[in-house]
Amino acid sequence: MDIKEIYDLFKKHPTICTDTREIIKGSIFISLKGEKFNGNKYALKAIKEGCSYAIIDEKEYDINHNTILVHNALKILQDLATYHRNQLNIPLIGITGTNGKTTSKELIKTILSSELNCYATEGNLNNHIGVPLSILKINKQHKIAVIEMGANHQKEIDFLCNIAQPTYGIITNVGSAHLEGFGSTQAIIDTKKELYEFINCSKGHLFVNADDELLLSLSNGTMRTTYGKSGDVTGLITDITPLISIKYNNKIIKSHLIGEFQFSNILLAICIGNYFNISNQNISKSIENYIPTNNRSQIVETKKNTLILDAYNANPSSMKAMLNSFSNQKYKNKLCILGDMLELGEESKKEHLNIIKLTNELKLDCLFVGEIFHNLTKNSFKDKIDLVKYIQKKNIQKKMILLKGSRKISLEELINIL
Question: How do residues 173-184 score in pLDDT, each as one tens digit?
């Protein structure tokens, strides 16, 4: 069965499932494989629980007339997404970057959705599996789409661009993350730049931060609209305690976001809203109504303290940005609880020492948790168990507390005791 025949089935059953715990009746199950699982083993179960078809790539599981045997199920998912994208004649905004991808994507979606039927990547489904799954959720009712693209090795953004075929492109920024996979900062730059190169070759359009000299340089020669403290769309920060407010078009917009670094994410969303002719009223209202979730720069009020929960992930650039912003918050009793930054490879020790040095320069009161920090500094705990004992003993109260660390550190688990 070729990709056109599979696509004809998809048109009749336009929902894809890859997890038997989330079966939707009438959908097509695609048997993906990983280091610890083999989706082929669940194909028959998927059909019994309501899937119309199951795409498999191991012959021994081809035991039902509703199974479709292919050479590589993952490639079929990706090819199916590309085929589907070719049937969609809508603007598609591709967004990548070291930090701010998801927040920017959600702000953009919120603004565009105020006047257009906009699809945007759900959660952080931004890799070689998530991007095709996202593309396949776009339907004929959608007028525009925003697709997030992540990468942890070179050529990955180029690969995702060939699936999603964006007509517009955004790099939020370029910083140090996933160094274990990339090997160097230059490799990160080269990988993120793949989005600009795709947009340039397809004669698309970029949205570029005018305050970022690297991005301005990388985007030279491509059609672009700029934003920032200078550029085509401009604004100013008017307040940062505890939430950031900006002035745009002679109006103060009060957001639910924390950190000066959110300025560029907000201006980017405004820039795109303006480009697609969303009214200024709806742009302002959308930003003011957007509330972050999923442990990303959330403010959590407990009975004892005020928490800034930014524990979804951490890398050197996002950690530095948040610490600098936190130091400027107009609160007397501040405390940082910082977790290890993972996937930094050979640069790990140096980058963690840089963070420790920065906290000292900013004169921030800090507690560190994780094996990496524990081997480098005092006021540190090897794991959360020891940290929890310390917090319970100290009975920390009436403080503004920043919680930031990599996903695996799970600092959000401290909320109940803070």
Answer: 987 665 666 667
